[in-house]
Amino acid sequence: MKISQLLAIPLLTAIAVPFAAQADTSEAFCKYFPNGASEPKVSMPCKFSMLGGIIDIVWQDGVKDSFIPTRDDRPFTYTDDRGGIVYQQRGEEQADGTSARIMKMENGSIHIWGS
After folding, report:
1. Does residue 92 carry a pLDDT above 90?
2. pTM for this structure?
3. How many domains are there within the chain?
């Protein structure tokens, strides 16, 4: 193998890795509902990303929520930054075929459209 071929592999890896991390991020719209509320307390654009099973939500105002998967035998179950249990659910399907991803926490839930 030529030296130029050996140098190409690390170069391609260095170029591809940042793009791979970006590929799991999407523009979304988020609403936070305290438990028992029919209207959201917060509603704004956000960015949703999932990498290695970890879910990050970055709200337009800069607030970030992170959810880390729990054991493999409990799918769709996460812990938040404070160690609380979080369950991932899907909302009802709308007429246009979309549904919200719902992160149900101890004190409320985040509804995410476009994730």
Report:
1. no
2. 0.75
3. 1
